[in-house]
Amino acid sequence: MADSKPYRPNVGIALFNAAGQVLIGRRFRDDGPEIILPGLEWQMPQGGIDADENPRDAVMRELWEETGVKSADYLGETDWLSYEFPPFPGPSTHRLAKFRGQRQKWFALRFTGSDDEIDPLTPRNGQPAEFDQWRWERLDRVAELVVPFRRAVYRTVAREFAKFAQ
To answer: Which of 58, 151, 155, 158 could bond to 49 as cystine, CB 3.0-4.6 Å?
Structure first.
């Protein structure tokens, strides 16, 4: 039963540019219960927290793994938020199948580099690329670009980080 499964510890990243927009990437493949739907492939970077890893360390590692970005300053963070995965008909051996969803701490970071630092296609730390495109987007629009099971978390992140988008 899905309710008895734990949540996967995870960090989410709202990377703000100087104009107050956030970086989003277009996922180009499904990953088990982390499905994408036509027209709803965009999301902010996020990823799992390794065993015994501090969330602040995880956010910088995940940002680099998924985007190549190292030039970012800490602005703030949310309390823990969570979402449930939709039903997953795939194999129970999938690395995410043992989780009911994700428990996330979101971080607001200010991008201090230049756009040519952003490279989501190069694999890093043995992790495959997740995004085939990226762009800057208004934070208050991102919830409408993600899969429905993530929208409530994205709306909360948009409310809590609105001050960084100005």
So the answer is: 58
**Which residues have CB under 8 Å from 118's CB, separation 6+?**
23, 67, 68, 69, 134
Q: What is the pTM of this model?
A: 0.94
Determine the pLDDT at residue 2: 53
Q: What is the mean pLDDT of residues 92-109?
A: 93
| Mean pLDDT across 115-134 | 95
What secondary structure, in 3-state letters, does the chain show?
A: CHHHCCEEEEEEEEEECCCCCEEEEEECCCECCECCCCCCCEECCEEECCCCCCHHHHHHHHHHHHHCCCCEEEEEEEEEEEEECCCCCCCCCCCCCCCCEEEEEEEEEEECCCHHHCCCCCCECCECCCEEEEEEECHHHHHHHCCHHHHHHHHHHHHHCHHHHC
Domain hosting 88: range is: 2-165
Tokens of 55: 């969330």
Token duo for residue 44: 């902010």
Give the CATH number of the domain where residue 53 resides: 3.90.79.10
Measure the CA–CA gap between 12 and 55, rounded to whole angstroms: 10
Check residues 42 and 166 and name the one with the higher pLDDT.
42
Q: In the block, which residue shows the tokens 């580099």?
A: 113
